[in-house]
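Dear Dr. L.,

I hope this message finds you well. Following up on our conversation about the binding site, I have prepared a predicted three-dimensional model of the protein together with pantoate. For your records, I am including the exact sequence and ligand specification that went into the calculation, followed by the structure tokens. Please feel free to forward this to your student if that is useful.
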Amino acid sequence: MQTLRDLPALRGALATLRADGKPVALVPTMGALHDGHMALVDEAKRQAAHVVVSIFVNPKQFGPNEDLAAYPRREAGDSKMLADAGVAILWAPSVDVMYPSGYSSNVSVSGVSEGLDGAARPGHFDGVATVVSKLFNQVRPDVAVFGEKDYQQLAVIRRMVLDLDMDVQIIGMPTQRAEDGLALSSRNAYLTEQERRDALALPRALGEAVRQIKKGMPVRDALHAAQALLLGHGFGSVDYVQLCDAVTLEPMEVLDRPARLLGAARIGSTRLIDNIAVDPV
Ligand code: PAF
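The resulting structure of the complex is given below.
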């Protein structure tokens, strides 16, 4: 595996890789890799002959009071995992390479970016859309793989690719979970042992809300019950628990089309998100 940190080196290596005419897949990450990321890499390998993984902790998607400085950085370990998995290129640019002095552009996707995490984390999805656009321009992948764990991010990227005629196929991979059901996330590393046990309330609250909605409980009541369950089981605050249209993420009061139940809540100093598919009965 080649680890590359500047654009001329990346472009040269990609030209060599592409000489066989076979497709290239990109898995964008912020590092601190876990089995969830490696499932994306496995899918990328199924989709394309050559796999590029990017590791870039993107300052533009962190708010002023968020965990940019504390975000886990483990490039040596990440690099070994990716090399062992058969990745061709690790693209690991510095902040100065990604956003050189004078950088002034921004990609903003309205609508789907605005509720949920977009409301709780102003500017977050502009940061994501901007860096993902740049990664697509830098690598020019045929396919890019993202996790459904960040479901709103995936919806924003799908909308951006459609709107801006980007010639890349977007694959969403189901959330990878620990044996007890907690969604894998780099931020789980922040949890104390007690918080890690309490964190299970998040997938349980979402699962229970889906069961109740399917049994006929009014959506609003099921969402309130899920919030109460979280607050009663170690979570200090709930940013949202919402049933949304599976594509546009518009809030839904009645389960009359394919939907997604999404939740975000804080436990200690850590903010966790999760979501589940909800098909109409
Ligand atoms: O999901 C992530 O790790 C990041 O949001 C992404 C897509 C790599 C953009 O920085």
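In brief: Residues 28-30, 58, 61, 128, 131-132, 150, 153 surround pantoate (CB under 6 Å).

With kind regards,
A. P.
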